[in-house]
Specification:
Chain lengths: ~900, ~325, ~170
């Protein structure tokens, strides 16, 4: 540990870090713009200037850039030296020359790094009297708003978008003070991680467009620590609420999971929370099929009268919390409870779970995946099924560059130098999939194979690793790469709907026989793994419930649209079987329409619960605001119902902590969920952790339109967080950090004040508990290749998951729906030529008596005899993975031209779109 | 008829005492207004005198609320006690020759006894309210009144020594030549200050001290019970003024032979009025001392002064006897 | 002691000075234009609402009696969808006016706003908005700020160059 001196103060620093990091670690306020902990230094903004002295006698010193200067034993710096402070102020002054006079109408205002830094360096008066440069803005899609005038040319956006997230369509243009960051032409940003530009940009060039429509300042948002419900990765998020609406979702740092970044589904996919489809009141079905709104109490009494002493079954849900699922199972009994996934999905996730519990390979966190130096993906389009993992893989392939840099003795944070050195050298990434994936651009080898062939390929690689002879060059090279890698990573998942693929991945991972080998699986929904853990302890399949339905009296469906889980005919039959159906859900769907009693469940932003991510990490999410209208959290509905029906065991439970501890007691595998988050009784410095900032405004006016007599703040009886601005948002466990703010640091850069060290875990530790511990006995998987007989003009139907559109809930968000487009059928170039269709044409897809008309999407590579279909779309609900379909040109198809979105094409559209050429 | 006279006088005092106190509230506010460059109540009736009526109606019609947490009996008893005690005090005041309810030979002691009863009212009011501010006010008043009681009595010893009697009539008559305000200047000084403290008027209103204690001992009081406290306070003010006049300013005697044409009662009430005005002036001008300052003033300044006064008076009396 | 006597003498002298009281409401006091009374929302010289819903007034308000929600016009300019001041909480401190970057919110010399029903003290935007510029006749935020609006293209704000053509190679 070298010691450096800053203004005479001795600081112990880490070997190899730079002076900026050292200063920040020491808690000093050194302004910066272009440096970012995950992207390293390029020294472009010149803001983090310090004075370095040769030795103790040197009083002159010279100005250096903190982010570009490595620490060395005994080096002496000054942060407070007059020339350094003057220099920093001058830098901000010059950055402000062209900054427009528009903070009041800027969505970054109040959480703007530029504002913070300007205040920090003390710049106040504008001396420059010349004219300001201006820029045209671009339309960048429904998610990101562009206001180029505010740019300070720190290059963070380009470095993030291109270098970090692998986007191709945003970059710097022009030169000197004309530099412009945008696309070559207006259009929707292609990257699935474009939303992070909002947080990466130190000023207001890129802002959150959906948030802008219903904008509130950061200090006015009530936030809570939450977990993204968009997929199974379990990214930590911090949604912000005001006036009863969840207005935006921000990334919440977790060193082992999402780090600084989340995907666009996570960031922008919560708009459905404010949609008209949300349920506000309970309803009892009338004889004419419509619903009669009733009060909570009446609804509960009705439900209780239908189930008490009767034969009742329950269907849980992989998108409901562990606690709600557990309560339902306890209420109806293990033999009457189905976890709620489709039978195929339940089997797949179940097997993934048992594999993870026995495999000799390491089950990595996302942070750990970034250390992989060779990656094999079997069957998954990771960007669409587990987006954040894909972003990690984009970092993993850079390990080659870091290796080269280390050989050269370059510090790894010297970003430009490392990239220059490495050029196009990437660590190997082998993708075996049925068709295009969004990671193809960084893959060393993309192999197109049908699902069953993927499994065969996997087994062949495993065989080759075990020394079997093969003549497939792909297999040989893959085996070779994996054998030579230090930290190989195998990724597969349930999205292909194939057990074989999963099994083959295990075989490969275990055949490598290195203790560092990593094996990771993508599963479909936010609590799929939690459902599987519960199901391991007992439960029946969905098919079983459907079969037994006529013998039952009532059925409780928990946050589950059954039509997404099984064949339409079967679900229709279940709902019409004459038994009373009680449904709890957050939004209107067909299952609710078919129910006899609907109970409005609180959304994730209104409830508390535990989710288990695909790596088996149990994490707690907390309500951002108290449930509006007559909604209750699902577990509350179920607990109340259990009490009304006189369930002895559950009647004793008072709050969520009780439910969690009972659940942990009952399920060995869930033993550790009591440690996921602090108990309800936890207090930080004597009080609850506030959800509101200390400058939360309008408390005495928010509700005064209804009544001038201010109501009491809602109480949160189940968590150590309060709906209040009183208390300290500091020094609490990491899982209770609702937002980041520190004096002088209003932007999200204040995160560094919450981290134990730059880029390290939060001061409150890592949140969440990993529930899956492997016995390392080795998984016993047995697989056998299926043989298919294809008739002429028949194709395998392969699921193509979509980041926007495949997820049930987020798809109901306006912007997500716009990006998702229509359900499609993906075909290869050759098939398209053969059928005589082009992108955007229609195809009739037929399988047995199922017929649907889908838009054509032409892909660059599709495995032989395979066509892909968009999963989770309304149009493709009837299609199941693996079935054989025939394709026919749809003659009645009407092409849709790309829609012009009214909200973005303003009256000035024609001016905004000419890119400045009008004056050129 | 002669037997009825004290009864009629008693009833008159009772009525005029209450009416006087009511008018005094208005008068004090007007006078404060004059000295503080404003008007005071001037909206109702001529010169705002209707304010008295308005206040009375308001107080009469207020909800007669007794806090559920209070000691009910004591809570009701406290305000009545002060009124009764103060009213009783008037029994011995000689307004004019023959114009008094009773002339007892221990009139002065009776007066001192009645004023000291007032402390019970304040103390019990504070205690019964079961409120921390009220309790603090009660405690303060107990300490304050007990302390000042001591030299209030002692300060009058000079007067008694000169007169040789506790009868107030005798005392007034002893001032036919020279008022005690000249011979007993120290006694007057101490008695005035002790009198203010006894009636807890500003600046010695520490038991209520609204800036610190909300309203002190009567925080929980409202309506007529509050009015009783106020009545008691103003009666106390009048009583003390009467006593000052009686003891030091020659009672019904006219100041100079000039005023012999006017009835003695006029002179008595005129002098009382001036003393009341002086009390209002004190209120207008002097800020409230701190509690410790109040106590140290009492014990470290007032008590020695009274003792010195007694010493000097005694010495002078002995010297004069010896000279005779 | 002497100081007390002197005080009493000084106070006594006031027997002969005139009362300062202004007999409101018969006699209306003079209120300076910058008197801090009822809050209004003003319009810019072009008759548009000045408020851009930046929320700074709400943040500055020490009693938190201002609540508003930003909305966007067709041309991208900001305006408050609703703007509510709970005058039953307002202390007329004027911090909102100080915080306002667009001179929209201003305090006026009017304090006669008593109500028998407290609910009537809650003013919505339609109650606050006046048809005038208030104390600052000339200011129009959007003419100064670099944001593009219906009446002003990029580069037409105060001290602005025409937009840069990024495709040009000229220096």
């Amino acid at each position: 540990m070298p010691t450096i001196y800053i203004d005479g103060q001795a600081i112990e620093v880490k070997q190899g870090e730079n002076v900026l990091e050292a200063c920040l670690n020491a808690g000093m306020d050194l302004p910066y713009f272009c440096w970012h902990p995950s992207m390293g230094s390029i020294g472009s903004c010149r803001q983090c200037a310090l004075v370095q002295y040769q030795n103790e006698e040197d009083t002159q010193g010279r100005i250096i850039m903190g982010c570009m200067t490595p620490v060395s034993e005994g080096a002496r710096f000054s942060l407070k030296a007059e020339n350094a402070t003057e220099f920093r102020e001058a830098v901000v002054e010059s950055l402000m020359l062209n900054h427009p006079h528009d903070c009041p109408v800027c969505a970054e205002g109040g959480e703007c790094h530029l504002q913070d830094m300007t205040v920090m360096v003390g710049h106040r008066d504008r001396r420059y009297t010349g004219k300001k440069n201006t820029h045209r803005n671009q339309y960048l899609g429904p998610l990101i708003h562009h206001e180029m005038n505010r740019c300070i040319a720190c290059y963070r956006c380009e470095r993030y978008y291109k270098d970090y997230a692998g986007g191709k369509d945003l970059g710097a243009q022009a030169s000197h003070d004309h530099v412009y960051f945008g696309r070559h032409e207006e259009g929707i940003l292609e990257s699935e991680f474009s939303g992070n530009l909002v947080e990466v940009c130190p000023t207001g060039v890129f802002t959150d467009k959906p948030f802008l429509k219903q904008y509130s300042r950061k200090w006015d948002l009530q936030s809570a620590p939450s977990i993204c419900h968009g997929c199974a990765v379990g990214c930590n998020i911090a949604p912000g609420e005001r006036y009863g609406k969840v207005k935006r979702v921000h990334n919440r740092y977790h060193d082992e999971v999402n780090g600084y970044f989340i995907c666009d589904r996570g960031r922008f996919g919560s708009g459905y929370l404010n949609s008209k489809l949300r349920l506000d009141y309970s309803g009892i079905k009338k004889s004419d099929g419509s619903f009669l709104a009733v009060h909570q109490k009446q609804a509960l009494e009705t439900a209780a009268s239908w189930i008490s002493g009767k034969k009742v079954a329950g269907i849980g849900s992989p998108r409901a919390s562990l606690e709600a699922n557990y309560l339902l199972r306890e209420m109806v009994g293990k033999n009457n409870f189905s976890a709620g996934s489709s039978d195929l999905e339940a089997t797949l996730v179940g097997s993934i779970l048992s594999i993870l519990q026995t495999t000799t390979a390491v089950n990595p966190s996302i942070k750990k995946m970034e250390t992989a130096d060779a990656v094999l993906i079997l069957g998954e389009d990771v960007t669409n099924t587990a987006p954040r993992v894909a972003l990690a893989l984009r970092q993993a392939v850079r390990n080659k560059a870091f290796e080269l840099a280390e050989q050269m003795g370059l510090p790894l944070w010297q970003d430009a130098a490392v990239r220059n050195l490495a050029q196009d050298n990437l660590s190997p990434l082998i993708i075996v999939s049925a068709m295009d994936t969004r990671l193809d651009d960084i893959s060393s080898n993309s192999i197109s194979l049908a699902p069953h062939e993927i499994a065969t390929f996997g087994r062949a690689v495993a065989g080759a690793l075990n020394g079997e002879k093969t003549d497939d060059p792909d297999v040989i090279s893959t085996a070779e790469i994996l054998k030579n890698a230090k930290n190989p990573l195998i990724i597969s998942g349930s999205s292909m709907g194939s057990q074989d693929v999963i099994n083959s991945a295990v075989e490969v991972a275990e055949a490598i026989s290195k203790p560092e080998t990593m094996l990771s699986f993508c599963v479909s929904e936010c609590n799929s793994m939690g459902s599987a853990l519960l199901a391991q302890d007992g439960g029946v399949s969905l098919a079983d419930i459907i079969k037994r339905a006529p013998k039952l009296d009532a059925l409780i469906v928990l946050e589950n649209d059954l039509y997404r889980r099984g064949k339409r005919s079967e679900i229709d039959q279940l709902l019409d079987s004459g038994i009373k159906i009680i449904s709890l859900d957050v939004y209107e769907n067909r299952t609710l329409d078919g129910s006899h009693l609907v109970l409005p469940a609180a959304s994730y932003a209104e409830s508390q619960g535990t989710l288990v991510s695909s790596e088996g990490r149990a994490q707690r999410f907390y309500p951002v605001h108290s449930p509006s209208h007559e909604r209750l959290q699902s577990w509350e509905w179920l607990l109340e119902l259990a009490k009304l029906t006189g369930n002895k065991k559950l009647s004793k439970l008072e709050n969520l902590d009780d439910v969690v501890s009972t659940c942990a007691k009952d399920n060995l595998a869930l033993k550790k969920i009591v440690d996921v988050a602090p108990k309800n009784s936890y207090r930080s410095s004597g009080s609850k952790v506030p959800r509101q900032t200390h400058r939360f405004s309008g408390r005495t006016a928010i509700h005064s339109d209804v009544s001038v007599h201010e109501p009491q703040q809602p109480k949160d009886h189940d968590s150590p967080l309060s709906y209040s601005m009183e208390g300290l948002n500091r020094d609490q466990p990491a899982s209770l950090t609702p937002f980041v703010w520190s004096p002088g640091w209003n932007s999200n850069q204040s995160l560094q004040k919450f981290q134990s060290e730059v880029d390290g875990p939060l001061k409150g530790g890592s949140s969440g508990v990993r529930l899956i511990a492997s016995s390392s006995k080795g998984s016993k998987v047995f697989s056998e290749s299926e043989e298919f007989e294809l008739k002429a003009h028949q194709w395998h139907l392969v699921p193509a998951h979509q980041i926007f559109g495949s997820d049930e809930l987020s798809a109901h968000t306006e912007e997500m729906a716009e990006l998702a487009g229509r359900g499609f059928i993906a075909i290869g170039q050759k098939v398209a030529e053969k059928l005589g269709v082009k992108q955007g044409d229609g195809l009739l897809v037929q399988h047995g008596d199922v017929r649907c008309s889908l838009e054509v999407k032409v892909l660059s590579r599709v495995a032989k005899n395979c066509v892909g279909y968009s999963v989770g779309y309304e149009e493709t609900q009837e299609l199941t993975p693996g079935c054989l379909v025939s394709l026919q040109v749809d003659k009645d198809w009407r092409r849709t031209s790309p829609e012009v979105i009214a909200s973005d094409k303003t009256a000035l559209g024609h001016i905004a779109s000419d890119g400045g050429g009008a004056y050129g | 008829m002669a037997e009825l006279l004290p009864v009629i006088l008693a009833l008159t005092i009772l009525v005029s005492g209450v009416a006087g106190a009511a008018i005094l509230t208005w008068f004090e506010r007007r006078l404060l207004g004059v000295w503080q460059d404003r008007y005071g109540p001037n909206r109702l009736g001529p010169l705002g005198i209707g304010q008295v009526l308005a206040d009375m109606i308001k107080l009469l019609f207020k909800d007669d609320w007794i806090p559920p947490f209070s000691d009910r009996v004591v809570f009701i008893f406290a305000p009545t006690a002060i009124v009764v005690a103060m009213m009783m005090g008037f029994a011995v005041v000689p307004f004019a020759p023959q114009m008094m309810i009773i002339d007892v030979n221990i009139g002065l002691l009776f007066f001192l006894g009645m004023t000291s009863l007032a402390v019970y009212s304040v103390l019990l009011g504070g205690l019964a309210s079961n409120n921390k501010y009220a309790l603090l006010g009660g405690l303060r008043s107990a300490a304050q009144m007990v302390s000042y009681e001591v030299f209030m009595g002692l300060s009058l010893m000079g007067v008694v020594m000169i007169t040789g009697s506790f009868s107030l009539v005798d005392i007034v008559e002893a001032q036919a030549d020279i008022w005690f305000c000249f011979t007993q200047i120290l006694g007057l000084f101490v008695f005035v200050i002790a009198g203010i403290a006894e009636s807890h008027r500003l600046p010695f209103d520490l038991p209520e001290a609204e800036h610190e204690l909300t309203a002190g001992f009567h925080t929980e009081y409202g309506g007529m019970k509050f009015a009783m406290f106020m009545l008691g306070e103003y009666l106390g003010l009048m009583l003390i003024s009467c006593m000052i006049v009686t003891l030091f300013f020659g009672g019904w005697h006219s100041p100079i032979s000039l005023g012999d044409g006017l009835p003695p009662f006029f002179w008595f009430s005129f002098k009382t009025f001036v003393v009341i005005c002086f009390f209002v002036l004190l209120r207008a001008a002097i800020p409230r001392p701190r509690y410790d300052q109040l106590m140290s003033l009492g014990w470290k300044v007032m008590l020695p002064i009274t003792l010195v006064n007694i010493l000097i008076t005694g010495a002078v009396l002995l010297w004069m006897e010896g000279a005779v | 002691m002497l100081s007390e006597l002197r005080t009493m003498w000084e106070v006594l002298k006031h027997t002969f000075t005139k009362a300062e009281t202004v007999e409101y409401p018969e006699q209306m006091p003079y209120l300076a234009p910058r008197y801090r009374g009822r809050i209004v929302l003003t319009r810019d010289p072009d008759g548009e609402e000045r408020c851009v819903a930046c929320n700074l007034c709400a943040a500055a308000c020490p009693v938190d009696c201002i609540a508003l929600q930003k909305d966007t016009r067709e041309d991208g300019t900001w305006y408050p969808e609703f703007f509510r001041i709970n005058f039953s909480r307002c202390i007329m401190c004027g911090m909102c006016e100080e915080a306002c970057p667009t001179y929209a919110i201003q305090l006026t010399p009017d304090f006669e706003m008593c109500e028998y029903d407290r609910q009537n003290m809650v003013y919505e935007k339609e109650h606050l908005l006046i048809n005038g510029v208030g104390k600052y006749p000339d200011y129009n935020f959007y003419r100064v700020s670099g944001m593009q609006t219906a009446s002003k293209d990029k580069g037409e704000a105060l001290n602005e160059e025409r937009p840069i053509d990024t495709r040009s190679l000229l220096p």
